[in-house]
């Protein structure tokens, strides 16, 4: 399979932006409109949030959304913007490594140039409660990442595979355990490592120095600013579902105010109708 020339160039450009000390900053989007807003704000690329995307489609986060619906939404985001798009595909929307390979082929067909693949287990997963703890066994996750790498290579696409490690988010381990998993996942074919759930400078610095690849952290209120994370050696900063959560909080505040007090102050500061309409009209 020969990938689209533009897609191939976008993938290379996206890959080149993962520079320790000069991080790629990704305000995560969940639909075509949020993606256009993020692009218009000056983002060099758009990253999806699997949680925000699932919520927009009426599903809960946590491997409950099927591959076709998820990647259909990713394709619409790709069509809405000109910058590269990287897709959060949860644990690969598949039970086994062969299925992960199928998902990667579908991701490339949708036009995305990168993926996040996480190592957490959820209730819907066959291994949940099997005694393996909240994370997949290292060997199994490495096999899934290797399948992703192989599928991308066979398609001729320089897809950026970001291996998410949920040691801190799940409380399943600290720095040493995270570094062990990171080394195994990079050896299996991952290009970068995403460690959500940790932003304290000492730990971030230890991870950046100990991981032989670009480190992605998830920031939010209370986290060090991007410049400080850059100085610690971070190569990518994203915010996960944070922007989607903030947007949905506005919906709830406005609805409760309207139905309660009967007033409209929560609508203050909204985007101008004409501006938003023009933004969507000037898309890709």
TrEMBL record:
Pfam family, one: PEP_mutase
Molecular-function GO terms, alphabetical: catalytic activity
InterPro entries: ICL/PEPM, Pyrv/PenolPyrv_kinase-like_dom, Pyrv_kinase-like_dom_sf
Entries under CDD domains matching the protein: ICL_PEPM
Superkingdom: Bacteria
PANTHER family found in the cross-reference section: CARBOXYPHOSPHONOENOLPYRUVATE PHOSPHONOMUTASE-LIKE PROTEIN (AFU_ORTHOLOGUE AFUA_5G07230) (PTHR42905:SF16), PHOSPHOENOLPYRUVATE CARBOXYLASE (PTHR42905)
Protein name: PEP phosphonomutase
